[in-house]
Amino acid sequence: EIVLTQSPGTLSLSPGERATLSCRASQSVSSSYLAWYQQKTGQAPRLLIFGASSRATGIADRFSGSGSGTDFTLTISRLEPEDFAVYYCQQYGRSPEVTFGQGTRLEIK
Amino acid sequence: EVQLLESGGGLVQPGGSLRLSCAASGFTFSIFAMSWFRQAPGKGLEWVSAIGGSGTDTYYADSVKGRFTISRDNSKNTVYLQMHSLRAEDTAIYYCAKDQITGDGIWLMSYWGQGTLVTVSS
What we know:
- The structure holds 2 protein chains of 2 kinds.
- Chain A is mainly β.
- Chain A has strands at 4-7, 10-13, 19-25, 34-39, 46-50, 54-55, 63-68, 71-76, 86-91, 99-100, 104-108.
- In chain A, strands 2, 4, 5, 6, 9, 10 and 11 form a 7-stranded mixed beta sheet that branches. A 4-stranded antiparallel beta sheet of chain A has the order 1-3-8-7, with no helix packed on it.
- The radius of gyration of chain A is 13 Å and the shape is globular.
- The mean pLDDT of chain A is 96.
- By secondary structure, chain B is mostly beta strands.
- In chain B, 0% of the residues lie in helices and 50% in strands.
- In chain B, the strands form 2 sheets. In chain B, strands 2, 4, 5, 6, 9, 10 and 11 form a 7-stranded mixed beta sheet that branches. In chain B, strands 1-3-8-7 form a 4-stranded antiparallel beta sheet, with no helix packed on it.
- The radius of gyration of chain B is 14 Å and the shape is globular.
- Chain B starts with a strand and ends with a strand.
- The A-B interface holds A 33, 35, 37, 43-47, 50, 56-57, 88, 90, 92-103 and B 33, 35, 44-47, 50, 59, 61, 95, 100, 105-115.
């Protein structure tokens, strides 16, 4: 089982700043099957990025993903007030048994 | 517009049973794999179970294997999660989710319902 470790646990930034969230895998993620989800308080997770760098339908272009192998990054270029939430990385593939990182809480400074 | 509406959650005693439902609309339900996830209060996300479009292929996390059963009724556009022998550690919000693309063999859940809360307590 691939273990995903996200850092930092909490990130405090101001609107307009750039956010960089990290996700490190315990072994290489095949075919870059790495996704990022956003979860706001009291809401369901929303798919932001899949295939490490492809934005899901309707996702603003200030969200971008990068990385391969074991190191992946979610970048939010200029934070909007609605971006403050918890972000999870997830590895997926040809098995339905997916795993998630523990999450990064992005909070307003 | 894709919609997933979970129901059936509630308070149940340890050892009890509950059946969750997820009613789907806005897409051709029968050709998409579906999954259940859960999130314990204040915790992260955990995959629970999954089912292929036809209902033939089912999958379970080790933590629920032998206690939970996933099924679907494609005539009703609904996926179910029957839960038996419930434990305190099963307390969570349960979400159903829809696969992104049908037929590519990749399990990526692109749309999630709003969830239903299951509380196991005496």
